[in-house]
Amino acid sequence: MKYWLIKSEGSCYSIADLQKDGTTAWTGVRNYQARNFMRDEMKVGDLVLFYHSNGDTEAPAGIYGIAKVSGLAHADMTAFDPKDEHYDARAAELNVDGKAPVWVCADVAFMRAFDKPVSLAEIKLDPKLSGMLVAKRGQRLSVMPVSEKHFRRIKELRP
DNA sequence: GCCAACGTTGGC
DNA sequence: GCCAACGTTGGC
Known about the structure:
Elements: E1 3-9, H1 15-21, E2 23-25, H2 32-41, E3 47-53, E4 62-75, H3 89-94, E5 104-119, H4 120-125, E6 143-146, H5 148-157
Parallel strand pairs: 1-3
Antiparallel strand pairs: 1-6, 2-5, 3-4, 4-5
This protein binds a DNA duplex through loops.
């Protein structure tokens, strides 16, 4: 079993949206490294920290809850939809009957939302969370692995 | 294959 | 809104 962190702008798709939807296809990832994590390593049952980026003082950037991988990576249809904000003309051209999608998405299911997020500031201050990728300077991956140790610590902070 | 220019992300 | 960091593009 692996552990992950996925990022979303809270104003775009929040943990509350996931709670409402139950499950969602994690579409819109347009970075090869992030895609490869989803396509090659994410397995059903893996646990996922749900991170909101671009926060403000009211709702700071940080981890807002926990989700679970509920479906293996499959074609991200938003890449083929010219009306979608994540449309990728080149990927659409390369695609043959949906058989060779450039972009994929795994499905994630809501598990729980934290009463209070574990903010980025809190992550940086906690010695037991040192080395967490998300707190690394310049780290912009929207899907990234999390160590079991760090995952357990997050759960310990929000039991 | 190098690298400058550009666009995007995301913390502050 | 600023700007540093990074990925991608495209000229050569």
